[in-house]
């Protein structure tokens, strides 16, 4: 019985710390892994932005429509001003964030 309890406690601790680093933008908090996925999606759509600057504002709409977008960004997609939040999240240096040397990253 003690072994089962110890394993359950270890597993719960692991789950809590697996998403330890959070990225904050104003009142919004996102996991570092979700921000990495968002940055990859924005990078893949940036080739479209470079070809046509008019599509720069609609690229965020295409990111919101992407089925691989993490669910924690879906409520943000429905709010006004989401493009500004997305642009700031795209600029977060994730390599620096992982060592918590960036002000927007917390939870190390």
Q: How would you state the average pLDDT, rounded?
A: 74
**What gross morphology would you assign?**
globular
Radius of gyration: 17 Å
The main sheet comes to: 3 strands, antiparallel
The number of distinct β-strands equals 3
Structural class: mainly alpha
Widest sheet: strand order?
2-1-3
Ranges where pLDDT stays below 50 over 5 or more residues in a row are: 10-18
Our measurement of the CA-to-CA distance between the termini, rounded to an integer number of angstroms, reads 32 Å
Count up the helices: 6
As a percent range, the share of strand residues is 5-15%
The helicity comes to 55-70%
Describe this structure in words.
By secondary structure, the chain is mainly α. Helix content is 59%, strand content 9%. It contains 6 helices and 3 strands. It has helices spanning 2-18, 32-51, 56-65, 74-77, 82-90, 94-97; strands spanning 22-25, 28-31, 105-106. Helix 2 crosses helix 3. The protein is globular, with a radius of gyration of 17 Å. Mean pLDDT is 74; it is low at 10-18.
Which key phrases capture this entry?
108 residues, mainly alpha, 3-stranded antiparallel sheet, 6 helices, 3 strands
List the helices and strands and how they pair.
Elements: H1 2-18, E1 22-25, E2 28-31, H2 32-51, H3 56-65, H4 74-77, H5 82-90, H6 94-97, E3 105-106
Antiparallel strand pairs: 1-2, 1-3
Helix pairs in contact: 2-3
């Amino acid at each position: 019985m003690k072994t089962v309890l110890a394993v359950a406690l270890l597993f719960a601790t692991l789950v809590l710390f697996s998403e330890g680093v959070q990225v904050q933008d104003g009142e919004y908090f996102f996991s570092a892994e979700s921000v990495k996925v968002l940055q990859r999606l924005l990078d893949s759509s940036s080739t479209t932005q470079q070809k046509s600057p008019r599509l720069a504002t609609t690229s965020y709409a295409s990111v919101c429509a992407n089925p691989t977008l993490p669910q924690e960004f879906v409520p943000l997609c429905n709010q006004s001003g989401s493009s500004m939040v997305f642009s700031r999240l795209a600029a977060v240096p994730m390599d620096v964030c992982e060592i918590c040397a960036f002000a927007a990253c917390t939870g190390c």
